Amino acid sequence: MRRPPALGGTRFGALRLAPYRRYWFGSAASVGAFQLLIMGQGWLVYELSGSPLHLGFLGAASSIPTIAAALVGGVIADRVDRRRMLIATSTIIAGLLALLALLDGSGVVAVWHVLAIAGAIAFIVGFDFPGRQAFFPSLITREHMMSAVALNSMLWQGSRMFLPALGGMIIALTDTWVVFAAGAAGFVAMSRVMAGFAPTPAGDVPLAVGHSGRQFVDGLRFIASRRMFATLMLLTYATTFFGISYVQLMPAFARLLGVSEAGYGLLISATGVGSVTGTLIVSSRQRSPRLGRFLLASLGCGAAALIAFNACVALLPGRTAGYVLALGCATLASMCISMFIVTSMTLLQLAVPDGLRGRVMGIYSICFSLIPLGGLLGGTVAALTSPPFAAALNAGILAVVVVFVALTQPAVRRLDGAAVG
Q1: How many domains does the chain have?
Q2: How does pLDDT run across 379-414, given as a tens digit for each residue?
Q3: Residues 226 and 348 sit within 8 Å (Cβ to Cβ)
Q4: Which of 239, 354, 401, 420 has the fewest other C-beta atoms within 10 Å?
Q5: Crossing angle for the helix pair 18-49 and 261-282, nearest 10 degrees?
Q6: Burial 302-316 (b: 16+ CB within 10 A, else e)
Q7: What is the 3-state secondary structure of 242-310?
């Protein structure tokens, strides 16, 4: 069996390729729109209801439709022109965001409006994300895969460094409808960028044929037949559900810490700073002979930092020291988790063949839908206890999962980055 190419390459090498560079800069608009949508929806729902349980409902509305659609979306991404698919998804999401901005700006918005539109957007995202994951590898060479995955991650994490803080200031000065309108414009820009690409020439990407149900099963069989692949994917699921999902409760944390909209935005931005830092650090570790231990240690440290974050909120509510310490813990947690996410996604992208990429990455993309779904669990527990207790409980479960994998999966623990390359 042919060995995959090295994980190395220059950190920003993929940007030297003009098609990927155009896609990456175009994606920045829609990724920024997502960040504004996430923080704007959370603040609006909490402002309208004042309930952490409703934040959990928002998490469910933002995740369950995506999970259902992603399973189909991955199959479709292997059957159609992925460029046209992304044009359609970007245009529809732009329209839904414009509708939310109109309802909010006119003063008639209710919680159920936000939840319904969040669910509709989540359904379309179930087609959009597998399409993106299947499309961008066609713009690069395999030796640039690590660079492209890291750059894609930096888009999400980098925009989270400043856009939530900016969005918080915009909400404080104007209203939430403005961030929704800006989000709509971002997806319009993405649609126009994708329209600028030529249609995929027939034969350039092996399109799947046959019954769609059987094609989906083929994707599952591919995952199940590779233990390392399946373990990394399940560990990523646990990370997003029990770890990153605490972000869904961030409006409640902001209230407990005694900060306003701007302070709420800075809390989310701190997670972006940490994630970008982790992405930059991990690029120098890809060839490490102890890559497996590095992966598990990073995730374990991330879980510990999350527990510390919740301790700061619970023990120092309404105090400046509590807020500053919480910012630091959120930054550290995001940095550690990012190091795991970027490395594991690179390994998975290198392992999957082009003909299965849409289906397999569609199944993988469920992990990001588990972030808001984990928020539903957190919101429910928070309503019965408190937000810090709920998020700390989830972080503790993640820590247990990491220890279990480390003890029972020696192949992951002994993963050698040099051997992979």
Answers
A1: 1
A2: 888 888 999 999 999 999 999 999 999 999 888 888
A3: no
A4: 354
A5: 150
A6: bbbbbbbbbbbbbeb
A7: HHHHHHHHHHHHHHHHCCCHHHHHHHHHHHHHHHHHHHHHHCCCCCCCCHHHHHHHHHHHHHHHHHHHH
Q: Which two tokens stand for residue 370?
A: 């588990």
Question: If we measure between CA atoms, which residue out of 149, 250, 139 comes closest to residue 197?
Answer: 139
Question: Dihedral, CA atoms, 133, 146, 223, 210, nearest 10 degrees?
Answer: 40
Burial of 389-402, coded b for 16+ CB within 10 Å and e otherwise, reads bbbbbbbbbbbebb
pLDDT higher than 80, residue 146 = no
Question: Which is nearest to 127 in space by CA: 66, 87, 73, 65?
Answer: 73
Q: Considering the domain boundaries, does residue 2 fall inside one?
A: no
Question: Given the structure tokens 């002979």, which residue do they identify?
Answer: 289
pLDDT of residue 420: 57
- Domain membership of residue 366 (yes or no) is yes
Hey, what are 7's tokens? 């994980």
**Average pLDDT for residues 118-127, to the nearest whole number?**
92
User: What residues contact 353, with CB distance under 8 A and at least 6 apart?
Assistant: none
- Residue 417 is predicted with a pLDDT of 63
Q: Any idea what the CATH number is for the domain that residue 410 is in?
A: 1.20.1250.20
In a domain, 62, yes or no: yes
DSSP-assigned states of every residue in 125-180: HHHHHHHHHHHGGGGS-GGGHHHHHHHHHHHHHHHHHHHHHHHHHHHHHS-HHHHH
Say how far apart CA 209 and CA 358 lie, in whole Å.
13
Q: Count CB-CB contacts under 10 A for residue 208.
A: 22
Contacts of 166 (CB under 8 A, 6+ apart): 265
Contact in structure between 150 and 11 (CB atoms under 8 Å): yes
Residue 3 confidence (pLDDT) above 60: no
Question: 105: how many CB neighbours lie within 10 A of its CB?
Answer: 16
- 258: tokens are 């005694």
> Is residue 7 assigned to a domain?
no
Q: Which domain holds residue 226?
A: 16-420
Give this prediction's pTM: 0.70
